[in-house]
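Sequence in, structure out. First:
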Amino acid sequence: MWTKVFRLFFFFLGLIVLTHVSVQASEQSMKSGENCCICQTGTGMAFELPFFDVGCKIWLAQQSGCDMKKTVKYQRDSLNYIPRSCDGGEVRLGFVGHWNSTRQTINFLEPLIEEGMFRRQMSFDIDNTACFAMDRPNDLKNFFDYKQQLPTEQFLRFRGNQVLSVGTWDDIPFAFGNSNFYAIYDSRSGQVTYPNCSEFRGEVCSATFGIQKGQRGQCINEQGDLETLKCCGARFYKDTFRRLSRGSDRTRTEGITSNRWMHPAQCGQSVN
């Protein structure tokens, strides 16, 4: 009888050990997930969709250290587009298409946090290249401060544009100027990071079409304060030199009107 009891004891002890080892292996597998780079294309008019695809190709080409790369259609309520091999790893998620507000950003993040971060233990580094994804950056900070908790072992970083953007086309030299006025929220610091004003002040904003005229973005100035810059027109002057036939030079001041990121008080003024 005691022999049977000992056999049963060691049998169940073996099951417990195997179960523990299996759980540890499963947890280790979750912690060693792949680093996945995925770009979502948004919905729009038929003629826009090929441009969204090209934008995603540009974005994916800029990503390094990825175990896998792919382009998918935009999805909000399901994470089926993220392979299981990414579980426990870091997902770099890009978006090219149309967006309308920080409120849409929050709606997008809610299911991603619940399934992706809590259930599948993934961290997310999100780069939304569309318009207005961070038009009210503090709304996103307040969402995480007061409404939404995150798992302690994962992080979420979200970069979006405060204004109407030109997406990945901002990378084309001389096409749109310095147009993507961004802001970043990072759960590791719990803070919003604004760009330095020096990145944008005096820079051309959407020079090709002037589509950002009148829009405002916030940045950190040289004194460390939050400052608002506006995309507006002003007349800029520069000196040009002309070689005359007799060997002497003549200086002429030329005025050029263009849209640039400036302090609102400078809009419509003459700027040297």
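Second:
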Amino acid sequence: MVIVFRNKSSFQLPFLSRDNFTKLVRSGVGYDKQTRTYRLKDRNIYDKSVQVLSELLGDEVSFYQTCSKCNTQFPCKATTIECEHYEYCGTRGLPMICICYKCR
């Protein structure tokens, strides 16, 4: 099973132990106490953050993209060679804006 986060600005997680919370925050994931949500702080260490998230949740983690033309959400395939933009995509797997497969 793949765990997918649909919100590009923040996401919620189940309760984490203090050690796991610390590990997650050190990997580049920020926490907002007011809304009790997490967010990716630094795009440059995205891979490390997703790796730690996957370890803590015990499953593969993926973020949805938002289509810039029709505003639908879809899973990013640029993390695999299936995507035609794999070679030059600068936002692979990041919760950013892209063009969905219907609009291409």
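Remark: The chain has one domain: 2-98.
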